Each structure stands twice: as structure tokens, then as C-alpha cells.
Amino acid sequence: MLRQDCVGVLCEKYIILIVLFTDKTKVSILLLYKTSDEETAEQILAICRAVGTEVQLYPYESPWRENLTGALEGNAVVIAVVDKDFFKFASSVFMSGYIAGRKMPLILYKKSHYKLPRFFAGIPSTSELRSLTGLLTAELQKSEGRDARKQAKKALQEMGFSLTHEAFIQTVKDGEILAVEQFLKGGFLPDLEDENGVPLLCLAARNKHRAVVSLLSRSGANINAVSMDRGNTALMDAAAAGAMDIMADLIGLGADLDIRSKAGQTALILAIGQKNEESARMLIEAGASIQGEDSLGMSAEKYARLFKLSKVIDLIEQKPLS
Questions:
Q1: pTM more than 0.85
Q2: Is pLDDT of 143 > 50?
């Protein structure tokens, strides 16, 4: 008898259909085969061992309608090894319709001389085991990603959050790091903007949520994204808020030090405007430019002198013009 504890794909002659479906953490495969082709199925199982997933065997001749429907329920990835006899079996016809209706990812493994019909056009296919193994591995990874997104969304709903951009934005403003993490895992983008065109990273910086800034940055948010309302980057918002820890993190990530806001102000001018000498020192020592004036005709040095920030003035005077 065929063993049911392995997974894989290989066929040189007959149709074999394999469906991978997830249940929280495991990915298992449904193997549809001809009972007369057990040897081929054994080859498939041997290859599946390398993948490390579980397999459920399903002969074409089995009473199929109810049992097959149950086996297919859930989030599925499909691998079909096909030949000209595929649609001679009711189970294969049903399986194909179910796969198409549920829009499940599908990979085709075919005998080298078999020409796929036109309705299979656009579906990834291969006649080489090595290529099939790579496609299978990639689909397993995608399946895990889909499952992770589903679990994250479920967690958010259990936490009382709606699955909307507005809810995500609010969690960033409120600094609810656990919820922000679940939104990101659920597929929400880290570069999302609010209704005023303010990127999430800027919102987190304005509200001094360092952990959220860090998480968004690690998740791929553009650290130099500019807000539509003020023309600020997250670094500039952090400087204006006096959030030195966030400034240090963003500088360490390579944030642009000299972007100017709609008012022509840089992060350095904003830091000086807050009379925060330590923030200004951090920016100057990181290489921020001391040149240029804002829309009021004021430079970083002029503001420093206006607010009598002697330490900043000393640093500016020591900094060579470039």
C-alpha cells in the first residue's frame, strides 16, 4: 500500500493531481492518482519527502464527490501532472472546476511531448523534476505567507480592530505596536498615508512612537518619504517633536539630513527652533548642512543666534563651509 506521510511530485506517464492546503501551521498535499499507477505515485512520494510536508492519497476511482470536496476545503496550492487522459475522470473535471472557482495557485507537471490545451495557457508548467521542485518550494512559501496573513487578520479582529486602512493608521498614531505588527503581517503596506497625505512613518515620529518607527522601517517603509501637509520627512518630524531617540535611529538608517519642508526648513532648523541643542548637535555631527535659508530668510545659524544657543553656534562656527 502507498504510504500517506510524505509529499512530492513526479510523473512520467499518467495524470497525477496534487493539492496543497494549509491549516494554521502545516501544509499538506492531496495526491490524486490512478490505482494502476502506484509505482509512479511512489516516486512522487519519495520526492515529497524532501519537502517535508504531509500527503493524503486519493485514487481517481474512489467515491469522489463528497470526500473530494472535503479534502479540497481550505487554502490550497495545486500541482497537476497532466496528460491527454486527464479529463476522462469525473474527479479530475470536478477538481479543475473547484480550483478555477476558488482561484487556487496551480502548477502543471507534464510529460515532455504533451502539449497543454489553450485553457492552461498562462499557468506555470514544467517537464523537469528539478524545475518542479523549485516551483513547489516557491508555492509552499507563498502558501505559508497567505496563511500568516489570514492568521494576522484573524488576530486583529479578535483584538477588536476592523481590517481597514483607517484602523491601521489609528494604531500607528496611538502607538499600538502589537496591532501595527499584525496589520503589517496581514499584508497592509508600511508606506500607507493618511487622508492628509502623511506617511505612517511621519505619524509615528510626530507621536514619538519609537517602536512603531522601528517596525515600519524594518518592514520597508521609505525613511525619506515626504508628507503632503508640511513637506516633512520622519526625521524632520522627530526633530520638531524633540524625539532624539527616533532621530538617532533614522540617522543610523541613513535618512537624508537636508530635505527641506514647504517652509524651507531642514531637520536642523526644526531642532534649533525647538531650542534643542542636543538634537542640533546630533544632526550637525552627522553631517547636516548649515547652509541655506527658509522662507523667512532665516538660516540655522541665524536661528541659533536668535535663541542664544551658544553650544550650537560654536558647532556651526567650527563646521567648514561646503
A1: no
A2: yes
